[in-house]
Amino acid sequence: xxxxxxxxxxxLLCSFLLYPIxxxxxxxxxSGSWQLQIPIAVEADTDAFExxxxxxxxxxxxxxxxxxxxxxxxxxxxxYVLDGKNRFQSALLQTGTALDLSNGVFSFAVGxxxxxxxxxxxxIKMKDTDSxxxxxxxxxxxxxxxTFLLHAAIPIEISYDIxxxxxxxxxxxxxxxxxxxxxxxxxxxxxxxxILDGKSNFQKFLSQIPSCLENxxxxxxxxxxxxxxxxxxxxxxxxxNHTDSKSxxxxILNGRSNYRNFLLHSRTTLEEAHDNFxxxxxxxxxxxxxxxxxIKxxxxxxxxxxxxxxxxxxxxAGPPVLGTLI
Length: 326
Ligand SMILES: [Ca+2]
Ligand SMILES: [Ca+2]
Ligand SMILES: [Ca+2]
Ligand SMILES: [Ca+2]
Prior knowledge:
By secondary structure, the chain is mainly β. The protein contains 1 helix and 21 strands. The strands form 5 sheets. Strands 14-15-16-17-21 form a 5-stranded antiparallel beta sheet, with no helix packed on it. Strands 1-20-19-18 form a 4-stranded antiparallel beta sheet. The chain is globular. The site of one calcium ion (CA) has 7 residues, from loops.
C-alpha cells in the first residue's frame, strides 16, 4: 500500500510538472502527422509497466491501461487507467489486483471475458508455471480485478521469449481469442500465428499457420487492428531495429489472407525504436482509421513516459495510409 501511495504522489507531481510541457506540445501537433506527443504520469526508464488501449468507461474514447507488473511492494499487479478523453492526463482507476507476481513471468491483455460489458484483465503466465505450459488467468473487471474468472493451462509450451500474445476476436463470435505470435524457433523459419479459441477457454486452436513475416524475435513489436476495415483482424508488425529506412517501420499482415500477405509497408519519422518504445493500435481520434500509439518508456526528456500518436490518413480510394509508404 505504501508503494501505491508513492506512485500516486509521483502521478500528482508529474501532473504539475508536465502541465506546461503538455501545452507546448499541443501547439506543435499540427506540423506533423503526429496527433499527440504528451508526457503521462507514469515513470520512465523502468520495465515495470505494460500498456494496453481499450475504452474503460464506455465513452467512446480509448483509454490507456497501465499495468504495473514489477516492483509494486505488495507483489500484486496494479492497474492504472488513464483517461483518453483527457489526453491521458487524469486517472479513471487506480487499483491493486488479486494477481500475485512473485512467481512467474507475465504478459497482459484487456478484453471482456465473461461478456458482461466490463473489461477484464488477462494475465498470461509464460514461464515458471506448475503445469509446465503457458497459463491464462483472467481477473474480473466487475470486482476491480480482485477475483478470478479463469485459471487455465493452454496447449502452448513455456512461451517466454518465444511468443508474443495479443487478444482479439478472430472468428467474430463475441469471445476474445488469444493470438500467440511465435517469433522464433519455428519449423517454417517464418513468424507463425497460432490462435486459441476464447469460447473453448483457449483449449482449441482456430488457426496455426506460418505468416509472410520472417522470424521476428528481437526485431519486431506487435499489435492488432483492422487497418482496411474489412472486419478481419490485421497484425501490425512494427520493425524496431535493423530497418533499411533507419526509422521505425510499420508492416501490416492481412487478416483476410490469414497473414500470408502484407497490406502496408511504411516508415515513420520516429528513429529506430529499439526497446525505448512500446506500440499499440486503436482509433485515437475516432475518425474510423487505425492510429499507431508509440509509447516512449525510456530516455525521455521529461523522465516520464510519453505517448505519441501517429494518425492514419484517408485516401480517395483504398485503405488509409499510416506513415510514409515504402
Ligand atoms: Ca467482463
Ligand atoms: Ca472469438
Ligand atoms: Ca482487416
Ligand atoms: Ca484514427
